[in-house]
DNA sequence: GATTAACTTAGAGCGAGCTTTAAGTCAAGA
DNA sequence: TCTTGACTTAAAGCTCGCTCTAAGTTAATC
């Protein structure tokens, strides 16, 4: 089963422009063209797009994704370099997770702040809510 | 206690260029200048930079951050709009958290894939490790 | 045969967020 | 007084990741 670029755009949420851009950039080395010169995407290409999306959203740049895809094309001898890329990427995702939790705390603080402010006015927030006063010091006075 | 732009750069990890850019862009409306025209940053300014960093890293654009800071300047009558911004931001962060976990699964899959491949060769991964075969279908064959 | 719609290419353009440049001011120390 | 170094400004330049344009091809339908 093969898909046209328009179908892939629908399936992935990427635009046809973006798909052509990725292809030209070297992210989709296996995409074939039919006799009319139209791209035919396979399931493997879709899985690769899925992975590209994952790598992109975990912070890898297109250039680095292209490097990884180049390595895949080179076969078994690049196995350990590819393995290292994912180990490193996992570490960076763990850091992001921690950062996300810290940011969640800050947003939660702001939400409690505004709840209190809506009740008592901004001038009275830290008088009315001592917990907020202490959380503020903990979360924002880092310098 | 006031800080020079260079000190703030050190404390925050932002460049002096970026700090001036933020100021000019309207993210730091309260930063004063001394008689020589040099910026003097207060603790409040540092806390605001901390918040800007948080909003930025949870996906808000500088334009939207500026809008929030404009609202702060307008006082109490914008309280509920500011509250809404944080409620919305919290929702978007929860979505990011889910996406992060999905991506973590995919990275873990790849790590297990390469561990197996390094042992048995890429040609044998799915023969040697049936769990990987099923995880692959689950994680990447979404289309 | 003409129209339509989906595709093709090369290449220009765009928005975000910095980053650098060029030219100048200022204050402290040798 | 001269130099040094940290600052100031306005504005140009840069990278990334698209996004759009212009001109053309192809295949199916009226």
Poorly predicted runs of chain A: none
User: DSSP helix count of chain A?
Assistant: 7
Give the radius of gyration of chain A: 24 Å
Percent helix of chain A = over 70%
Oligomer: homodimer
Main beta sheet of chain A: strand number and arrangement? Answer: 2 strands, antiparallel
CATH class of the domain at 1-74 in chain A: Mainly Alpha
**What is the averaged pLDDT score of chain A?**
96
What is the fold-level CATH name, i.e. the topology of the domain at 1-74 in chain A?
Answer: Multidrug-efflux Transporter Regulator, Chain: A, Domain 2
Largest contact between chains = A-B, 43 and 42 residues
Roughly how many Å apart are the termini of chain A? Answer: 58 Å
Class derived from helix and strand content of chain A: mainly alpha
What is the ordering of alpha helices and beta strands of chain A? HHEEHHHHH
| CATH-level-2 architecture of the domain at 1-74 in chain A | Orthogonal Bundle
Strand tally of chain A: 2
Strand proportion of chain A, as a percent range, falls in under 5%
What order do the strands of the largest sheet of chain A run in, or round the barrel if closed? 1-2
Instruction: Characterize the overall form of chain A.
Output: elongated
List the helices and strands and how they pair.
2 copies of one chain form a homodimer.
Chain A: H1 5-12, H2 16-25, E1 32-33, E2 39-40, H3 43-57, H4 62-73, H5 79-120, H6 125-128, H7 130-140
Antiparallel strand pairs in A: 1-2
Helix pairs in contact in A: 5-7
The structure holds a DNA duplex (30 and 30 nucleotides).
Could you characterize what this model shows?
The structure is a homodimer of 143-residue chains. Chain A has a domain at 1-74: Orthogonal Bundle (Multidrug-efflux Transporter Regulator, Chain: A, Domain 2), CATH 1.10.1660. Helices cover 71% and strands 3% of the residues of chain A. Chain A is built from seven helices and two strands. Chain A has helices at residues 5-12, 16-25, 43-57, 62-73, 79-120, 125-128, 130-140; strands at residues 32-33, 39-40. A two-stranded antiparallel ribbon of chain A has the order 1-2. The mean pLDDT of chain A is 96. At the A-B interface, helix 3 and helix 5 of A face helix 3 and helix 5 of B. Chain A binds a DNA duplex (30 and 30 nucleotides) through helix 2.
């Amino acid at each position: 089963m093969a898909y046209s670029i328009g179908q892939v755009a629908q399936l992935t949420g990427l635009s046809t422009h973006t798909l052509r851009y990725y292809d030209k950039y070297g992210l989709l080395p296996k995409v074939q063209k039919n006799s009319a010169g139209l791209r035919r995407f396979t399931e493997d290409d879709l899985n690769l797009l899925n992975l590209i999306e994952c790598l992109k959203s975990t912070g890898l740049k297109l250039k680095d994704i292209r490097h990884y895809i180049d390595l895949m094309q080179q076969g078994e001898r690049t196995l350990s370099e590819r393995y290292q890329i994912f180990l490193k990427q996992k570490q960076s995702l763990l850091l992001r997770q921690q950062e996300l939790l810290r940011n969640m705390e800050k947003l939660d603080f702001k939400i409690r702040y505004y709840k209190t402010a809506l009740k008592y006015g901004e001038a009275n927030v830290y008088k009315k809510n001592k917990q907020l006063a202490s959380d503020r010091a903990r979360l924002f006075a880092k310098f």
